[in-house]
């Protein structure tokens, strides 16, 4: 299998765009480089006011649990020669401490086998060296964007022991600091206490995470083949979970070693008999109930004239291993060839162990596989490439989840169409993957819990792929799938794989009835290109009609226009960038108590958009056009900024763009939102105006140079002129 394959994304942003792993957004508006430079100059250690060293950062639920304990925050002691990394990075650097955070640590352990994925979340050039100022930063992915999260190095201790992850080497701190940054990203340490491994996978990789029940309808031979495929791909990582002792299933992984962990097991041998797992979480075979483990690799060994399939697993406690067949203490290893025994066998209490395939299926409950492309689903020589389409949208107010017999539900819900071609049909395996994610803010809107979400896949007539119009329930031929396991739908993410016959299918993302709008991110992976579209996209109308101006705005009528232009144009009846900036801040922002003003850069972008001559200044006529545009766009902003917060969310922005008459596809709209939204995923008034004026300029340029209304043919010189 070609491990370098990734899904093609025609709509994906370039690496230079804000929100990519190369240029992440600043979480809480904190710039690591600026903060580092400031504190180095002042010879001060950074203290993060946005994630303070007190119980607010630990969380109220944990405050109650540790009420009788001594809680202290400590920085690493420089006398102990602290380092971010000691002898590189290994899963043995990690030992779970007093939180039920195995759902995070098992994922982190899996990532230690992938240097590229780790580099995405741990930026280089930071350590406890001469540039040390008590500040570090890490990167996490959420809702389509990468975020840079800054933290100080004050770590919480409970009764002298690490609250969260414990480093196995006393002077190595990358696990503690990374997890502190993740706790800040999630809101507090208490949000690390119990969780869903698939969510950690997405935050730490930005990939797609699929969950499989090991006793599901997938044949066991196919399941092992899939795990083996995934293990051969260096870009794919896996974890597995156990059930409760009574055999019941829970959606969350909660086990934690509490106060019975041990010290100093990094890459060393500790006799198995020295360490015991408490009976209350012991399954009787060395495994821990409701616990998440890292799935490291698969192997096949020759044993007694047959082939035995083995799975390599790691416990994030750093100890506590399987004691059954093929464990470290099992005599079966004596009957394996010397070469295979040397290659695979280690008698070491480090949390890592082998288990045979049959026992793995019997004692483990779920498997989670994460990758940037679902290549591990390619069985029976399927086409190698997957294509991904990403859609950002919003469930409008009043949408209620239901079945496809509910006309109101069907009409209000955003609709997406996919096409499965004859060449995409598979005999075994899967050919479609769908992932639905809620925006993190949805949880806060829903009183601290995730609203229940789902999606339906329904077969429809192929003609709708050409018509691209929204459908009513009368157009449905039959329902293929009615969503996921109904016991686990109050989650941030849902993802599943499908084996669909050739045909056209409607995807309906749905949410339980709410009184607010809820944004979502939909990802669709298919085996053919350009086979996923959104239905009911805004139809083209005549671009821009200034309309009547609001009475309470300063209007560009003849007298006001001439006086204003003469007042601000300082360069022989021409307005420079600085002139325009002064006009925008003094006139357009007049009486608006918005904290953000127009910068030189935003003013330059607006000037260039309305300056077809490329002169770098505005004459009177173009200034008049700009003023008309800005006034109209300001009017639209007030129409859709209903809560008067001075910013628009993605859904409100789409309404403004549609009302202005711009023909913008959903992918283009997503691109603009990524460029201009702030850390709260909203577009501030000034950024909104810049974006709208640029849209106007691009639209005017297209109309000027097109001959058929469909495209343009430009020389290199003209293209450079327009771009510059």
Describe the strand arrangement of the main beta sheet, using strand numbers: 9-14-10-11-12-13
How many discrete structural domains? 4
Termini Cα gap: 44 Å
Low-pLDDT residue spans: 1-16, 250-280, 484-488, 538-559
Strand content: 15-25%
List the total number of helices: 21
Describe this structure in words.
- By secondary structure, the chain is of the alpha+beta class.
- It has 4 domains: 166 residues, no CATH class; 150 residues, Cysteine proteinases (Cathepsin B, Chain A, Alpha-Beta Complex); 140 residues, Sandwich (Jelly Rolls); 166 residues, EF-hand (Recoverin, domain 1, Orthogonal Bundle).
- It is built from 21 helices and 25 strands.
- The protein has a 6-stranded antiparallel sheet. Strands 19-18-21-16-23 form a 5-stranded antiparallel sheet, with no helix packed on it. Strands 15-22-17-20 form a 4-stranded antiparallel sheet.
- A hairpin with a 2-residue loop joins strand 6 and strand 7.
- Helix 4 packs across helix 7.
- The longest helix has 21 residues.
- It is globular, with a radius of gyration of 29 Å.
- The N terminus is likely disordered.
- InterPro entries: Calpain_cysteine_protease, Calpain_domain_III, Calpain_III_sf, EF-hand-dom_pair, EF_hand_dom, Papain-like_cys_pep_sf, Pept_cys_AS, Peptidase_C2_calpain_cat.
- Keywords: Hydrolase, Protease, Thiol protease.
- One of its GO terms (biological process) is proteolysis.
- Belongs to the peptidase C2 family.
- GO terms for molecular function: calcium ion binding; calcium-dependent cysteine-type endopeptidase activity.
């Amino acid at each position: 299998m070609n491990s370098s394959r990734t899904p093609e994304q025609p709509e994906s942003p370039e690496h230079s765009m804000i929100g990519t792993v190369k240029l992440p957004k600043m979480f809480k508006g904190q710039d690591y480089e600026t903060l580092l430079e400031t504190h180095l100059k002042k010879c001060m250690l950074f203290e993060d006011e946005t994630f303070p060293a007190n119980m607010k950062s630990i969380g109220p639920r944990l405050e109650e649990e540790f009420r009788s304990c001594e809680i202290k925050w400590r920085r690493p002691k420089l006398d102990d020669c602290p380092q971010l990394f000691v002898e590189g990075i290994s899963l043995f650097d990690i030992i779970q401490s007093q939180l039920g955070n195995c759902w995070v640590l098992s994922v982190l352990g899996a990532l230690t086998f992938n240097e590229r994925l780790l580099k995405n979340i741990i930026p280089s050039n930071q350590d406890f060296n001469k540039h040390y100022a008590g500040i570090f930063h890490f990167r996490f992915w959420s809702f389509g964007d990468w975020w840079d999260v800054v933290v100080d190095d004050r770590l919480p201790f409970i009764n002298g022991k690490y609250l969260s992850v414990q480093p196995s080497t006393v002077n190595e701190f990358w696990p503690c600091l990374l997890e502190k940054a993740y706790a800040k990203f999630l809101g507090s340490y208490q949000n690390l206490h119990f969780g869903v491994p698939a969510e950690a996978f997405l935050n730490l990789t930005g990939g797609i995470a699929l969950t499989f029940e090991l006793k599901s309808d997938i044949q066991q031979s196919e399941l092992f083949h899939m795990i083996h495929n995934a293990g051969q791909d260096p870009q794919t990582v896996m974890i597995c979970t156990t059930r409760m002792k009574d055999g019941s299933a829970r959606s969350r992984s909660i086990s934690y070693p509490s106060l019975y962990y041990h010290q100093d097991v990094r890459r060393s041998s500790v006799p198995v008999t020295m360490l015991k797992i408490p009976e209350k979480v012991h399954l009787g075979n060395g495994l821990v109930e409701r616990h998440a483990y890292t799935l490291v690799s698969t192997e096949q060994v020759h044993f007694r004239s047959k082939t035995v399939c083995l799975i390599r697993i790691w416990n994030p406690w750093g100890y506590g291993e399987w004691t059954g067949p093929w464990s470290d203490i099992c005599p079966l290893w004596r009957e394996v060839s010397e070469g295979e025994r040397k290659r695979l066998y280690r008698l070491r209490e480090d949390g890592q162990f082998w288990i045979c395939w049959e026992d793995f299926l019997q004692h483990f409950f779920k498997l989670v596989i994460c990758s940037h492309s679902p290549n591990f689903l390619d069985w029976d020589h399927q086409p190698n490439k997957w294509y991904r389409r990403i859609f950002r949208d919003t469930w409008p107010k009043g949408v209620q989840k239901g079945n496809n017999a509910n006309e109101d539900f069907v009409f209000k819900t955003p609709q997406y169409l996919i096409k499965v071609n004859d060449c995409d049909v598979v005999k075994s395996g899967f050919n479609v993957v769908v992932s639905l994610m809620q925006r993190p803010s949805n949880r806060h809107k829903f009183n601290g819990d995730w609203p229940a979400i789902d999606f339906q896949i329904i077969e429809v007539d192929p003609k709708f792929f050409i018509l691209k119009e929204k459908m009513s329930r009368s157009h449905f031929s039959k329902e293929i799938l009615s969503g996921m396991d109904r016991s686990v739908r109050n989650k941030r993410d849902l993802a599943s794989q499908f084996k669909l016959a050739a045909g056209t299918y409607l995807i309906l993302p749905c949410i339980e009835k709410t009184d607010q709008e809820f944004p979502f991110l939909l990802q669709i992976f298919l085996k053919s290109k350009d086979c996923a579209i959104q239905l009911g996209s805004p139809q083209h109308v005549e671009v821009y009609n200034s309309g009547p101006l609001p009475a309470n705005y300063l209007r560009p009528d003849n007298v006001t226009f001439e006086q204003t232009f003469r007042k601000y144009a300082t360069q022989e009846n021409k307005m420079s960038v600085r002139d325009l900036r002064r006009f925008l801040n003094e006139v357009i922002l007049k009486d608006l108590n918005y904290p953000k003003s127009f910068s030189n850069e935003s003013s330059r972008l607006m000037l260039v958009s309305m300056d077809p001559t490329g002169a770098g200044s505005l004459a009177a006529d173009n200034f008049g056009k700009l003023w008309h545009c800005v006034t109209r766009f300001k009017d639209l902003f007030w129409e859709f900024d209903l809560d008067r917060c001075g910013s628009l969310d993605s859904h409100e922005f789409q309404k403004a763009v549609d009302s202005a008459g711009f023909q913008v596809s959903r992918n283009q709209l997503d691109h603009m939102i990524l460029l201009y939204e702030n850390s709260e995923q909203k577009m501030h008034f000034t950024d909104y105006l810049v974006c709208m004026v640029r849209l106007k300029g691009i639209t005017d340029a297209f109309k000027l140079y097109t001959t058929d209304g469909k495209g343009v043919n430009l020389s290199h010189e003209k293209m450079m002129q327009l771009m510059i």
